[in-house]
Every structure is written in structure tokens, then in C-alpha cells.
Amino acid sequence: MQSPTRTESSGKLKRPANNSKVLKEKFVEIYENFFKGNDPSAGRPHFWSELFLLKVNSAYLTRCLTEISQDQLLTIKACIGNINKIFLNAIEMMKDETTKRKINAIETMCVLLQGIFAKKFNNFSSDVINLLTGLNNANTVFTQLVDAIKHLMSDDEAVIKYEALRLAVVIVCGNSNINQNSINEFFMENDIFDPLIKIIIAPETSYVAYEAIMLLGILSNYNKHESKNPYMTKITEIKDESVFQKILNVVESTCKKCRNHYIEIQDDDETYKYSVSSALSYIIPWGMSGSTKEQPDITDPEQAFTIVAVLLVFYDFVNNNKGFVIYISKSIAEYPESETSLDGHSFLDFLSFTSYLVQHNRSARTASYIKLLLFVMLILTEDVTFDSRISDGRKSFYVRLCRQRQPLLPSVKNPRPLVCAILDIAIGFINHNMRKKLQIDLYSLVLGIIQRIMSYHKKFKVELSYHWSELWHSLIGLLKFILSNYDNFQHDHSSINEILVPTINIINLCIAFGDSFFPDAGTYDKLIYEIVRSNEVFEVNIQDPTKPTPQKFSPFEHAFANINTICQHFHLKIEAWKATNRVKTLLPEQVLSIINANYDSLNLITPEKLDIYISFSEIPYHVPFVRQILRMVVEDFKRREVLLD
After folding, report:
1. Residue 442: closest CA among 501, 369, 349
2. What residues have CB less than 8 Å from 193, skipping those under 6 apart?
3. How far apart are alpha carbons 631 and 189 in whole angstroms?
4. 536 close to 476: Cβ distance less than 8 angstroms
5. What is the H or E stretch that residue 6 is in?
């Protein structure tokens, strides 16, 4: 048989003139026989050891599996038998001493399992297990498989560790709903926690730390609400700061990369200048590279956010490991003074990315990740040590915050305590997410973060220099939006009240205790000024109970008491001053002067429990959300195209 020849000009293979058949690749020939229902291993004792020395043709094997339907897989006995043989012998070759056989066995297993998992089975777990091992042999075989993976994850060769990790990811994420993948039970019975941690912190496997952290996070969430999960238990017990630092490094890389997708499309410093060329690979689908877009949709970068799935792990560590929260606080306190004006600490990048995401909240997927980020911030701001670190006026940072949408907050170029950036993020969410279908859950979390921050400052009398007027504008604007649309919301009123009441309470906290954390008396004057200026917003009190419209707000009469008193008191003083001085219009400075001169006759009540809140708890209220986002995280993780460094 004449072999293919290579042309001197192009170097491409040229079919012989007599059109004789080209020899098939041995791997292809063998698997072609398998999928035809033949058994090329019959009577050949060394068949499998020889097969797994052959380079795996992943593309061909994938194509074969794609062309077979799930019904054919389950009904053709010869096909079932051959897949079973391939699977069992691949497990055996994972234990071989030859590196090449181990790698080829794992590669074969990955392609085989991915092809099978892609099918739509009626009963995922039982159908897959029956196909791979038979139901009677499942316990023995899958126990051996997990044990082999665990052993290879501790191999001396980094490449073997990576391949074992990759196989574990394929198995665990076989079904996007990992709780319905009963194969994962074998990873609970014989957990791979220790080798995973070693991969995460070892320098030689740093290039796969992201994958290892993600696998740890996914396994720790497997049926964690139904039974004791060994991974979650061990996460709560971790004390090794090298693990904490690696988690933060990966979070930093993730947040920085995702934030930069927004910046590449719209430069915050030049609001209407778009830099499209560097972001085309993220915003233009394959096959459409000729398309142009003068002002690309700023939400397009979300399509590249498969890596933000790691934020679930960040949340789990913050929520379940007190030592991790302490480490974050310590890392902020110990950050070099010379670098505090630069964007470079992992938590700074987390805050920066969060600011961009909350202002571009346009999909259910984005909203879910925002909720996860807000969980993290809520939990952290409940910690007194963390609050003391972010509020320390001697430790200032510059955080790049999103300035891509109106209204913009004042541009701040000087370093500030980190608490200022967190408040700016909260304001950014409030200002840019008012819509008919108000996201009650997200607003409640944002208001909870503000309340926790202010409660700390009130309790410990920690002064904070901040553009407080921006916070009051946002809160009053939110109140105006809710009160003017109260009857039009598609939510029931009890849900809307979950936003209305805390918004009023935050304003009340400022009225009652602002002098304990405002930097000067003038700041308090400006608060009263903003309340008086927005008098029409607060005209919902029960002055005339015969009128039906105000009556619907009767539950808030007590909450509005101080606000109404302030509005009425200073309105009378201002009108009296205008009459005495025969002027119709006052300048802001004149109004502030009147306010400052008339506190003595102002009688306010001191509301109770404004700084009291219920600590965050995942169970029972947030369990449905955690299950939902876990599925989203697995789907995004499976779609990833790149690994973080």
C-alpha cells in the first residue's frame, strides 16, 4: 500500500494517485470496533495494557459518543458491555506504574464520562451507573475509582495530580444539579479533602489552584442541608493561613479579570470612549468577527464570567470559618502603608468588582452573583474586628469604583477607609436598581449592610468623614420611589415593607445618634436640611385618619414620628424667619443657619433597637437560593475556557 506523501511546497499530506485507502490510526480502528459492538480485546491478554499506551484521540472518541443516543447506549447490550469494559480497565490502568498509561487512562475516562453525562437520561444516576458498572457492582467499582483518584492526587508528578483533579471535576460536575448525582456519595464516604488542600497550596500545582478550590467548594455543598458533609465540616476547621491566602489570591485574580472586562468596553475616566478591540473575544460570537458595534452593551462581559463561580467558595469560607474572617481583617490591618493608595489587596479587588456588578444588574444570573457578594459583605460587617479595620481612619485605601452610569457619586482620588467604598457600593446599588419589579431580597441585604456599619460606628463612637449627603439622597430617593408607587408594585405590601421599614430606620439612626459618628456639627445640620427639603416625600403621616390614602401607612406612624416632627418644626421656623425678614426665597446657607439656631425647641423621641439586627444565617431562609446558585455555579464552571494563574 502506498503511503501518503508530503508536498514540498505546502507540507500537506497528499492522497496517493491510485486512491488506495490510508491506514487508519490504531486507536480509531480499535474504538470503531468497540462501537460497532465487537470486542477487539477477546483472546488478547495484553490488549488493555497496549491500548492505554496509545495516544488518546479525544476528538474521535467524543464524536463516537455524540453520535450514539442515550437509548442506544442503554439498550444495545454489546455497546453496554464494551463501555463497561473500557471503564473498568481504565480504572485498573490508573493504578499502573507507567505515567503514560495513567494519563491515557484518565484522558479516556474523562472523554467517556463527558460523552455519557451529556445524554439526557430519565434517571441520571441509576442509568449512568448501570451503563458504567452495572448496579450490582457500583459500590465496589466507584469506591476503587475514588480511591485511585485520591491516590493519584498525591502523586509526585504534577501532571498526574492535575489529570486526577480533572477527572474528579468531570465526575462531580457530571450533572449540573450535583445533588442528583449519587456518584458523588462515594466522594463523601472517602473524601479527597487533604490532597485537594495540598494541590491548592503547593507551588508546583499553583496553575490549577482555581480548579482545586472550585472542586472543594462544589463538594462541600453536596447535600449539605440534608446530611453531614465532611468537606464543609473540614472547611470550618481550617487554620492554615496559606490556604486562606490562596483563596484570597484566586478571588483577587477573578474579580480583577471580570472587572477589567467592563473597563475594556467603557473607560470610567472617559465615559463615552469605548475600547472595543481588546474585548472582542468576549463580546462577539464566533463567526461574527466582521460585526461592528459602536457602543457595545455593557452587560456583554457577563458572558465571560464563568470564573466568578469561585465566589461561592469565598462565601462558604466567610460564612463558615471564623479564622478566615480574622485573616481578612488582619491582612487589611497589615497591608503596607506605602501601598494603601494603590489597588492591589484582594479585598479591594473584590469591592471594585462588586461596584461594577451592582450597577449592571440586568439578568437573573447577575442578580444571583450580586446576592452572593452581598452575603459576603453582610457577614463581614457583622464582625466587630472587621468593622474596626475598615473604619480605621489611620488606614486608607484607594478602590476603583464603577463610574459608568448616572447619577455618579463624587469622584474621590484620595485614599479613604474601606468602609467608605462599601457605603459607595451600597449607594450605587440603591441608585441604579429602582424598577417596577423591585428586587426585595437584594435591597434588604444592601440596607442590612448599611445598618450594620452605622450600628458599629454608633456603638463605638467612631467618627467617619464621608459624603453623607449622598447616602441621604439615595435613602430619601428610595423612600420617594416606594411611597409614590406603593400601590403599583407587583409584590405584596409586606415584601415592600421589608425595604421601607429599614430605610426609615437608618434615617432615624442618623437623626438619633448621628452626633456620635458624624465628623462635625455641620454634617448633622445637613442631614436635617435634606429631611426638611424633602418634606413632600414624608407627607404620609396620619394627620387625618379619615383620609384613606395615608391610612395604609399607619404601621409606620411611629417610624415616621421624628421625621414628621423635624419637618413640621423647621417648616414653621423657616416660614417665621421669611416673614420677619420679608423674603420669599432662601439660600441653602440661610436654611442651614435657621436649622442650627433652632435645635433647642426641637423635641424628638429616641427610638429603640435601631442598631439591633438578626445575624445572618443560611438556614432556613437562604437554603433555596444556595441550592439554585450552586447549580448555576456548576454550569458556569463547566463552561470555563481558561484557568486562572
Report:
1. 369
2. 216, 230, 231, 234
3. 22
4. no
5. strand 5-6
pLDDT reported for residue 222 = 97
What is the arithmetic mean of pLDDT over 467-483?
95
Bridge partners of residue 13, in order along the sequence: 6
Give the pLDDT of residue 4: 39
> CB neighbours (10 Å) of residue 149?
25
Of the chain, the end-to-end C-alpha distance in Å amounts to: 49
Q: What type of residue sits at position 622?
A: H
Burial of 32 (0-12, 13-18, 19+ CB in 10 A): middle
The predicted structure's pLDDT at residue 341 = 47
CATH architecture assignment, domain 26-221: Alpha Horseshoe (1.25)
Cα–Cα distance list, 81 to 76, 183, 546, 607, 615 (Å): 9, 20, 81, 74, 55
CA distances in angstroms from 127 to 70, 78, 188, 572, listed in the order given: 9, 16, 21, 78
All cell numbers assigned to 264: 475594556
Domain boundaries, the chain: 26-221, 238-433+626-645, 470-613
Q: Give the C-alpha distances (Å, rounded to integers) separating 449 from 429, 442, 457, 614.
A: 12, 11, 13, 12
Q: How far is CA 485 from CA 434, 478, 490, 500, 537, in A?
A: 11, 11, 10, 12, 12
For residue 588, pLDDT over 60 is answered with: yes
Give the residue, 94 or 78, on which the prediction is more confident. 94
